Amino acid sequence: MGQVIVITGLAQGMGRDVACRLAAAGNSIAGFDLDAAELAALEKELDDLGAEHYLTPLDITDREGVLRFRDEVLKKFKRVDTVLSNVGIGFFGPFEEIDLEKALKCLEINVIGAASIFQAFIPAMREQRSGKLIAMASLVGVIPFPFESVYTASKFAIEGMVESIKYEVEPFGLKVALIEPAQVSTDFAAKIHKLPPAGSPYRERVQRFINRDNELIKTATTPAQAADKIVRVVLADRPKLHNQVDFMSSFFLFLNWILPKGLRDMILLNHMDIKV
Question: Residue 16 is part of a domain; what is its CATH number?
Answer without folding.
Answer: 3.40.50.720
